[in-house]
């Protein structure tokens, strides 16, 4: 071996006419191919401690915000919003029209159902079970026009609420659009439940109270079709809309307008507003009917707070302890069932299809 090779290290054969190059021997010995593969990005950077910093990480692939775009809102212009609104309104009208034709085939049965609270109240007070027609077109306008349209609103309520959700969903994130089915089902269910509560409980007691005021004072009620039907619509539709309170609270939480903590901290103001609304909707001025309206509304308010709390937990990746909650609810239902059993077996009460649902 040549003495120069001993001093310089390992010889490197020339490539493409290049002169031979030697590199130092040792644990960090490097070949010529390694030298050629070195680039400014991969060259080791010496540090003060003698070590070498690792090469910088490669830039993330797909850094164009694909995930954000996937989870983001849909972009629509003002004219596109107007076109979408027009399309949804047309679909609502078509749905109501189909429901109207369907209800029109059952008009006689529907009117018998609507007039039943008046007949029962008049019978209870000992009056004739009839309503009075004043104008020649009164029966046609109410029984064959207004009544089917009013019933069509309840029948088509799931379709209407779905169109409402379809219109506002482009302004939500994709992970929030999965609430479509619960929104439609809960909204339509609460709307119909409010109408049922008004029909079987609130309207019957309010009407009986109003008709009984003049009894014994040489007054015999003469209720017209228009007055009765207007009162029926005001009470049932008003209560049905009030029952949408949990859905409204949930929707405002979904849009980050309110939070469960904010609602709880200002619940006293909400209860005051609820009593004011109940006083407007209630057909009678007595305290009993006012509480009959206000109590379910207050319960619905706190149900809405609970629904918004579940939404916040879902956003934060936490889970509600359903096991403990269902256990408590089961115990409460068992206690109520035991009390109902004792009321029927020991005290001789029986179930009746109207409020208070227990009678001797």
Strand order of the largest sheet: 1-2
What's the shape? Answer: globular
How much of the polypeptide forms β-strand, as a percent range?
under 5%
Give a short account of the largest sheet. 2 strands, antiparallel
What is the N-to-C order of secondary-structure elements (H for helix, E for strand)? HEEHEEHHHHHHHHHHHHEE
Number of strand segments: 6
Over the alpha carbons, how many angstroms does the gyration radius reach? 37 Å
Instruction: Indicate how many domains the architecture comprises.
Output: 2
User: How widely separated are the two ends?
Assistant: 122 Å
Could you say which structural class the secondary elements and strand pairing correspond to? mainly alpha
Q: Please count the helical segments.
A: 14
Fraction of residues in H or I helices:
55-70%
Unreliably modeled segments = 1-10, 15-30, 59-71
Overall average pLDDT? 78
């Amino acid at each position: 071996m040549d003495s120069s090779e001993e001093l310089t290290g390992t010889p490197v054969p020339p490539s493409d006419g290049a002169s031979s190059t030697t590199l130092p021997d040792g644990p960090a010995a490097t070949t010529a191919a390694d030298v050629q593969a070195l680039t400014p990005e991969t060259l080791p950077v010496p540090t003060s401690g003698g070590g070498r910093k690792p090469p910088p990480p490669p830039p993330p692939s797909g850094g164009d915000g694909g995930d954000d775009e996937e989870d983001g809102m849909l972009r629509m212009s003002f004219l596109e919003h107007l076109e979408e609104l027009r399309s949804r309104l047309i679909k609502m009208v078509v749905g109501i029209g189909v429901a109207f034709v369907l209800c029109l085939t059952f008009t006689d049965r529907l009117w018998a159902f609507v007039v039943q609270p008046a007949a029962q109240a008049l019978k209870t007070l000992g009056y004739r079970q009839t309503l009075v027609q004043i104008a020649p077109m009164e029966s046609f306008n109410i029984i064959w026009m207004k009544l089917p349209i009013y019933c069509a609103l309840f029948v088509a309520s799931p379709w209407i609420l779905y169109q409402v959700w379809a219109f506002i969903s482009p302004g939500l994130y994709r992970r929030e659009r999965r609430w479509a089915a619960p929104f439609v089902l809960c909204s339509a269910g609460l709307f119909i439940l409010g109408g049922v509560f008004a029909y079987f409980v609130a309207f019957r007691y309010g009407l009986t109270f109003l008709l009984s005021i003049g009894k014994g004072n040489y007054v015999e009620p003469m209720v017209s079709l228009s007055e009765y039907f207007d009162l029926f619509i005001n009470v049932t539709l008003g209560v049905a809309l009030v029952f949408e309170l949990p859905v409204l609270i949930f929707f405002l939480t979904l849009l980050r307008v309110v939070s469960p903590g904010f609602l709880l901290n200002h619940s006293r103001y909400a209860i005051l507003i609820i009593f004011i609304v109940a006083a407007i909707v209630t057909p009678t001025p007595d305290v009993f009917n006012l509480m009959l309206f206000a109590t379910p509304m207050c319960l619905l308010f706190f149900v809405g707070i609970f629904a918004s709390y579940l939404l916040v937990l879902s956003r934060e990746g936490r889970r509600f302890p359903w096991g403990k909650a269902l256990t408590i609810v089961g115990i409460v239902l068992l206690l109520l069932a035991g009390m109902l059993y004792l009321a029927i077996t020991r005290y001789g009460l029986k179930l009746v299809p109207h409020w208070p649902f227990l009678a001797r």
